[in-house]
Write a structure and sequence with these properties.
Elements lengths: L3 H7 L13 H29 L4 E6 L3 E7 L2 E2 L7 E8 L4 H4 L2 H7 E3 L3 E10 L6 E7 L7 E8 L5 E9 L1
Helix pairs in contact: 1-2
Amino acid sequence: MFDTDAVLKRLSFIRPSATPRLSLASRCAIVAATLGLAFSSVLANGEAAAASSPPNVSMDSMSYGYALHVKVNGTDLGLVGQKSESVRLFRINDPICAQMPKTAAQSHCVLRSGKNQVQVSYERKSDAGMSIEFMVPDAKDPVKPVSLLKFDEPKPAKGTLSGEFKL
């Protein structure tokens, strides 16, 4: 249950002694207005940050039955397979890359504007499946990712898959 009294007491513009005199509807309206202002401020700041920074790509791998090596633009991402792994990839010139340790930046800051080449070398070790997907947040709905490239369950027991996606 949401405790409106506790929220109102923490708001600096309402004296705690005046709180009990407000009706429940008034208290809910004040809390809703305060939260609405705070949320709209967060959304505005998030939209400005999203507009100024390029999208990052997440790579998700579920390869319980496969040993694998994944390269993006010739750089090995350090994945070994036979488990679930996720990696966040950034553009080479992303400001966050300058803040990362050098070894992390070398394997995570590999994306280029335009075409990005992906190479997946795999070897089947058991009958479990494999799925590798590269995704980027949707510009209209950042919670719902857009798939850029996906590899599913290759037929041969050993091989290399190649593909590309554009940013």
